[in-house]
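As described in the Methods, two query proteins were run sequentially through the folding procedure within a single session, without resetting any intermediate state between them. The first query and its resulting structure tokens are shown here.
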Amino acid sequence: MRKSDRTFAVALFAITLILCSWFLDQAQNDNTVSRGATVAAIVEQGTVHIDAFAHLTGDKAEVDGRYLSEKAPLPATIVVPFHAAFLRLGLIGPSPTDHINVDLLRLGGFLCGSLPFALIVLLCWQRLQHEQLRTPVAALVLVTFFGSFLFIYSGSFYGHLPAACFLLAALVALERDRALLAGAMAGCAVLCDYPTAIFVLCWAVDLVLNAWKNSTERRWQAPMRFLVGGLPLGIALLIWNTALFNDPFSVGYDHVVGYRPEGGSILEKFKPEALWGLTGSSYRGLLFHMPVLIVALVVWLRSRPTLRTFLDLRMTIPTLLTFYFVCSIGMWWGGWAFGPRHLTCIAVLLAYRGLPLIARIPWSRTAAYAVGALGLVHTFAAKCTIWYSQPTEAHHPISEVLVPALRTGEWSTFQWLVLAGLSAGEGCVLFILIFALAVLALQAFERRQLA
């Protein structure tokens, strides 16, 4: 990579990180509180049990009369050392029993929301750079991701974005024949969001099949390295499950308080209504909440994909299996959510593979900017007001929730500039202006580099 490209990459990452950290989530909702409670319990009380905070969240597991977070462990684990350091320095206070400290939630939102979002944007830009298209691509990447439901979850202490970031890093490593790193990144993804194991297993099978077809002496090197890279993370998960849930193959979701899935398994029967609900609907549809993927889908279909493409174990098959899995869980809609949060990993990997297809063709680039602009209007309106607070029963969330919030001026106060004394409305306007200026500046810089 040229020095100018490295400089641009650093600038793109920094600008993205600043923009996606403009809003940091401090809401006391079940999902973020469950993870925050684990961090607070470990650092402040020396235990993984969240008994002192269990009344604050419905997202909890009960084992032997004690309470635990039912979430995958890595996001909370990432935040633990930072919270411990800041607590010791007096930069963050302990959490009282009536709420989780908002500074802890902001810290979790930055580390597990903003940082992975910025890394995903950077990796997708680098992928487009390899195409050597002689056209600016940073603006296309920024419009794609900021104009999607993924931006809503940047700045929030969820597990989806770190899982997607690790999974994307694993895919990039596989493409560069770095199987050991790919295995480690894939293992981290599973420890952030268990369903990513579907992708990991498919990739392992793909490596084994490729080795089987290969006749060279070192043909088994890649699958073995992938296994070795992921094995320590797998062992860590088994130890975690045994210590907390008394069974190496039992996870927190098997012990959720007040909920028992059909048949006793998280995987229930397939729900036909989820097909439209998770694809094109304004309720939780992936294409509606990440509209640039519509253009990518059209370009891909126009390329006349072969049967081999549909049987691709790197992308197509694990995507379909994950989609089937989400359509078969009890809360496929994700509760109070903006878009299909359970499809975060699919959205990121589809964008990573789809953006190069879009960028090669002038008409598709134009179309992507057009639908991406609509996505920006949608996501910025939500980020400035309701975030992901779209009730399950609101099947037309734009007209039922978002538009009323805009009319009444319910501007989000979860902004750093609000803490500095700026009004919430002024902060939202300033954010939009800075985003627009940043996109134009990056576009101009790339054009100058390509001239």
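Immediately afterward, the second query was submitted; its sequence and tokens are:
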Amino acid sequence: MTAVSGAHKGTNMDSFDICIVGAGIAGASLAAEIGASARVLLIEGEDRPGYHTTGRSAANWHQSYGGAAVQPLTEASGSFLREHGFLSERGALTIARDHDAARLHRFAGEFAALGVRVEVLDRDGLEAWIPGLLPGWTLGALEPDCSDIDVAALHQHYLAAARQGGAQLWTRAHLSAAIDEGDAWRCVLSDGRELRCDTLVNAAGAWADTVAQIAGVRPLCITPLRRTIAQVRPDPVAPADLPLVFDLNQKFYFKPESGRLWLSPQDETPSDPCDAAPEELDVAVAIDRLNGVVDWRIEHVEHRWAGLRSFAPDRLPVYGFDRFHPRFFWCAGQGGFGIQTAPAAAKLAAAMVLGEVWGKVDPAPYSPWRFS
């Protein structure tokens, strides 16, 4: 996309049908789906789109991730991701101890009933997938269809498609004011540039409530939560065919990456919107928890990073026009599942913005009106 920065050019204020605040995966995919149906502007506060959560994701297409109410969006996204070459086989394995056997079986049964391929494994089955598994881990739920997502390629695909559809991208474009003038929004950026738009879309991720406040819209209590990941060098080397391994109680996950291991304590620490940085304690906690799962030795922590995953109070995404501001559209609260659901979520949101219907997923569970 053509990035516009510096002083506003020309004597007339730029006008658009739709201004999308945030050019991460949510904003970029929505702009791509709207295509040539409207004049679209993406505004991004950073030097480049995807700097924050999108660019720090260890995303997988994982049908049970996010829960049963998110699964329809994940399922509806799978064919697009697969057909366009963004997925590579991985598999996911949720492991548990004896005392959690009933919960593990409920977990497997819930998603099997939704059409997800799930196989319950005993101790022997776990050992076949996880070498060096310590005693106490006795059963698991294997989801063989879980796949890695090429996040960077997917994001760039959507940015390119948005550009081809005629959308503009302005970087270093921080929204400082948005005034509802009755028939349009007048938006003012921190560098003095101004624009008008008919519809203002809030795809600002961790800054979603901040954008709402700037526009005079009631926030929805969308909370940014910090998630930490460390790349570690284990001994022995992590098997290349190791699945994505989750704890049923959400205390850790790990997956192989080019002979290394990506490891997270699955932390969810409330944070102000910011350029998130990992805490040493969280990395240490992740390693300690891994030491309770396998007999591997961690030789070195090579890299660590953190991102902010933003959740609405019920942990479902929010797509739809605000109840009290009918030209303010929420595209927020995607938590940790925003990338794996992006294709379907973008189609659903684009249809709503354009006053159309996309019948593959029911929008009702994701409406912002549920908080009114």
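The chain has two domains: 14-55+151-221+313-371, 83-149+223-311. We note this only descriptively and draw no conclusion about the first query from it.
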